[in-house]
Design a protein that fits this description.
Trna Endonuclease, Chain: A, domain 1; four-stranded mixed beta sheet
């Protein structure tokens, strides 16, 4: 089994966890703010985590060049990280060309630092004291590092594990847009027929913190939409970075 190296959190774990709720509340994790990272990381066969991080920043630089071709009001619109929280319907009413500039590209380090500033301001207003540098590291870890650790390390090793158990099943990674709408990571086909979908999650996803409960509820709603549209159930697979299944009871459904 190929074992790629994980990113390690360079920040105190308690400080990092203290930003979880704000990160989600501000919707800084939305594709409007950071791009469809699960799609971006599948664009190239990265062999080292540093390659992925450099690619994400480089993609962000390409985005800056393209945005600079638009007029000032449009540039301001596209650089407004809070727009998706303030007016989601307006964002989705924009032309595909404009939305794609935010969803189909990465971000520069400077743009991630700006998100760190927004995060810090929100936290300080709510009695949590972190530096901008610490908040930037939280942003970087969530956007770049957790995507690598989750998609490249945990997800791929988990699918390798499942493929060995169920050789008759074809597991297909879904695009980032589909993941965002339906909260699914892989679809499972047998004989070319869709049978079910999987959401691959870490052990922390089973916790009882408010932000985790909210995430599970939101994902459950998205999963129901998927089942209603495609007629296939969605199962949660909880696994570690080596691909070991931590909720083996789910295997009886696969």
């Amino acid at each position: 089994m190929i074992m790629e190296k994980e990113f390690a959190l360079a920040l105190d774990a308690d400080k990092f966890r203290a930003t979880n709720s704000a990160w989600n509340e501000l919707m800084l994790n939305d594709p409007w703010s950071v791009g469809y990272v699960t799609t971006l990381i599948e664009l190239k066969p990265f062999t080292e985590k540093e390659e992925w991080e450099a690619f994400y920043y480089r993609s962000g630089g390409e985005r800056e060049v393209l945005i600079a071709r638009w007029d000032a009001p449009t540039q301001a619109l596209l650089q407004d990280e809070s727009l998706i929280k303030k007016n989601r319907s307006y964002v989705y009413s924009l032309s595909g060309n404009l939305r794609n500039l935010n969803t189909q590209f990465g971000r520069t380090q400077e743009r991630l630092y700006r998100k760190g500033e927004i995060l810090q301001q929100h936290l300080n207003n709510n009695g949590v004291n972190l530096t901008v540098g610490e908040c930037f590291e939280c942003v970087r870890f969530r956007v770049i590092c957790e995507t690598w650790n989750g998609v490249i390390i945990r997800e791929r090793n988990t699918i390798r594990n499942l493929q060995g158990r169920f050789p008759q099943v074809e597991f297909r990674k879904v695009p980032g847009e589909m993941d965002h709408v339906y909260a699914v990571d892989y679809e499972a086909y047998i004989g070319g027929e869709l049978r079910y979908a999987l959401q691959v999650k870490p052990k922390s996803y089973t916790g009882n913190a408010t932000y985790i409960l909210n995430a599970r509820q939101a994902n459950s709603r998205k999963n129901h939409l998927y089942t209603a549209r495609f007629g296939a159930p969605v199962y949660d697979v909880i696994s570690d970075s080596k691909g070991n299944i931590l909720n083996p009871e789910v295997l009886k459904n696969l």
